[in-house]
Specification:
The protein has 417 residues and is of the alpha/beta class. It contains 22 helices and eight strands.
Length: 417
C-alpha cells in the first residue's frame, strides 16, 4: 500500500495500448469474442450510463479488458440495431462466464449487465473490498492512487454517454476505467488475505452475483419522493405534486430524457406549496409562470401539460386527495420507538452502540457489518427464544451473510439475555 502524499503522483492520461476502436458492428463483435475466447484470466468490466440525461438507465457503453486480449469498448446501442431496444450479449457472457469478473461498485453496473444478458458466476468488487478493509476513500480514483501509484483523471464521469459519436477523449477515459482493475484487484486480494477477511469478501461477492438477478420491486407512489414535498401541507397540494410528477414522467418516458431536465423537482414542490390550509385553491397559470423552474425552455414547451394537471387537481373531490402521510407497513424509524415500543427503544440503545464499536474494532463501516434495516428489524421484535441460532436465522432471512451473523448474533444475545 502507498501511504505517501499522493499530490505528486504521475497522471495516467492515456491507455498503455492506446484507445481501441469501438465495437459497433457484428463483424467487430465476433472478432472480439474470438480474441476473448483465446485469452485467459479474470475480466475487468465497467458500464457507462446517461442517467442524468436520459429517462432509461440502460448502458450506453461497456468497457472490458482481459489479459492476452486487451481492452474493448462495446457500443450496445449500435449493436442493438434500429428495432431492438436492448442488445443481447449472452454469447459474450458465455465466452467469459467461467472467469472472475472484476468491477468497481458492482451494484451499480450489474443490473445493466444482466439486462444485456450477462451474469457473473465469480465476482471481485474492488469498491466493496475497500469497504471491507476499512479504507477511508473507496472511489476508483482514490484507490488507484493508493494502490497503483498513479492519478486517474475523472473529468468525464458525469457526461452524456448517449452522445453519438463519442468524443475521442471520452473513449480514452472509458478505456482507463478498466486499465488498472486487475492490478488493483490483486493488491486488494492480498490485503484481504493479510487481514483475514478473504472469506468475508467471498461471501459478499457471491451474494452480489445472486442479488443481480433478483426481480426489482417497483416502489409504490414514486411521486412522493419528489424533493421539497416537506413544504407541502395540504392534501390538494400533494395531489398537485402527484399530477405534475406523473405528467412529467410520461413526457420523460416518451422523449427518453431525464425528468429533472424537463422540470426540476423544486419547481413542482414550490408550486404545490402555494396551496395552503387557509387557501386550498389550485394556483393560477400566472403563479405557475412566476416560478423559475417553469420559465425554463424545456418546461415552457410543455405548458399545456402542466395546466392540464392543475385543472385535474382543481376538480378532484376531497375524498380523492392523497393523505399527507402514509404508513409503509414496516416498522417505524428508531426515533419513534421510545413512544411506540419502549422495549425496542431500550434494545436499540443497548445494541446499536455496541454494533458500532464492533464495526470499528473490525475496521468496517457499520453498514457493511450489518445493513441498518436488518438491525432495526431484529431489535424491533427479536426471535423467541433468544439464542445465537435463532438470531442468526433471523439475520439470514434479512439477507445477512454468514460472516455477519457470526459477528453480530453472539453480541446481540449477550446484551439482551
Amino acid at each position: 500500500m502507498i501511504d505517501d502524499d499522493q499530490s505528486d503522483l504521475p497522471i495516467l492520461s492515456s491507455p498503455a495500448e492506446g484507445v481501441p476502436d469501438v465495437v459497433a458492428t457484428p463483424v467487430d463483435y465476433r472478432a472480439m469474442l474470438s480474441a476473448l475466447a483465446d485469452a485467459d484470466g479474470p475480466v475487468a468490466l465497467d458500464v457507462e450510463r446517461a442517467q442524468s440525461y436520459r429517462y432509461s438507465g440502460k448502458a450506453y457503453l461497456v468497457q472490458l479488458r482481459r489479459p492476452g486480449a486487451g481492452s474493448f469498448l462495446i457500443d450496445p446501442i449500435l449493436l442493438a440495431g434500429e428495432h431492438d431496444e436492448i442488445a443481447d450479449f449472452s454469447d459474450l457472457a458465455e465466452v467469459i462466464g467461467s472467469a472472475e469478473w472484476i468491477l468497481h461498485a458492482a451494484s451499480q453496473d450489474l443490473p445493466n449487465l444482466v439486462q444485456l444478458g450477462m451474469r457473473p458466476k465469480l465476482l471481485f468488487d474492488t469498491e466493496l473490498a475497500g469497504r471491507l478493509l476499512g479504507l477511508p476513500k473507496v472511489s476508483l480514483g482514490a484507490m488507484v492512487e493508493q494502490y497503483c501509484g498513479v492519478h486517474l483523471l475523472k473529468e468525464h464521469s458525469a457526461v452524456d454517454w448517449s452522445t453519438r459519436p463519442l468524443p475521442a477523449d471520452w473513449l480514452s477515459y472509458a478505456t482507463l476505467d478498466v486499465e488498472l482493475l486487475h492490478e488493483l484487484r490483486d493488491a486488494l486480494a492480498a490485503e484481504l488475505e493479510a487481514a483475514g477477511k478473504q472469506e468475508w469478501a467471498r461471501q459478499e461477492f457471491e451474494w452480489l452475483c445472486e442479488w443481480a438477478v433478483r426481480p426489482v420491486e417497483e416502489r409504490a407512489d414514486r411521486w412522493r419522493r419528489t424533493s421539497g414535498t416537506h413544504a407541502v401541507h395540504h392534501p390538494r397540494g400533494l395531489a398537485l405534486v402527484r399530477e405534475l410528477w406523473q405528467a412529467r414522467d410520461k413526457i420523460a418516458h416518451d422523449t427518453d430524457r431525464a425528468p429533472g431536465k424537463i422540470l426540476p423537482d423544486a419547481a413542482i414542490s414550490e408550486l404545490a406549496a402555494l396551496i395552503t390550509r387557509q387557501s386550498p385553491s389550485v394556483p393560477t397559470a400566472r403563479e405557475l409562470r412566476g416560478i423559475d423552474g417553469f420559465k425554463r425552455r424545456n418546461a415552457r414547451q410543455y405548458l399545456n401539460a402542466w395546466l392540464d394537471a392543475m385543472g385535474r387537481v382543481a376538480e378532484l373531490p376531497g375524498n380523492q386527495l392523497p393523505p399527507l402521510r402514509v404508513h409503509s407497513g414496516g416498522i417505524p424509524t428508531p426515533r419513534a420507538w421510545e413512544r411506540a415500543n419502549p422495549d425496542a427503544w431500550a434494545r436499540w440503545n443497548s445494541v446499536r452502540p455496541a454494533v458500532i464499536k464492533l464495526a470499528e474494532e473490525n475496521s468496517l463501516p457499520v453498514e457493511n457489518l450489518l445493513a441498518p434495516e436488518a438491525l432495526r428489524q431484529l431489535l424491533w421484535q427479536p426471535p423467541k427464544p433468544l439464542t445465537v441460532e435463532s438470531v442468526s436465522q433471523m439475520l439470514a432471512s434479512l439477507n445477512a451473510r454468514v460472516w455477519q451473523q457470526e459477528l453480530v448474533a453472539p453480541l446481540v444475545v449477550e446484551l439482551l439475555s
